[in-house]
Amino acid sequence: MEERKSELEKFANDTEKDKESLQKSLEKYNKLREEYSGNKKMMDNLDSETKGTEQVLQEAETNIAKYKTELDEINKAIAVLK
Questions:
Q1: Residue 41 — left, alpha, or beta (φ > 0 → left; ψ -120 to 50 → alpha)?
Q2: pLDDT tens profile 17-40
């Protein structure tokens, strides 16, 4: 159980870092949108990148919630065993 707990903590931390990076990418896309508002090709590109990034961000948030739920369950089980 301790090994699984360590794995989940690492997964949660790594996914949190990925989430932060994805959020920074979205901020960058929003700034570029302002800069290239008249360029349809660039806007279409940004729309596509934004949509893909938002999907990956949602997956990261789902995974973080899953990891934390499992971590809570493991912590409870460890507490009962002690």
A1: alpha
A2: 999 999 999 999 999 999 998 999
3-state secondary structure the chain: CHHHHHHHHHHHHHHHHHHHHHHHHHHHHHHHHHHCCCCHHHHHHHHHHHHHHHHHHHHHHHHHHHHHHHHHHHHHHHHHHC
Give the distance, in angstroms, between the CA of residue 74 and the centroid of all CA atoms in the same chain: 22
pLDDT tens profile 5-21: 999 999 999 999 999 99
Q: What pLDDT, on a 0 to 100 scale, did the predictor assign at position 82?
A: 81
| Count of C-beta atoms within a 10 Å radius of residue 79 | 8
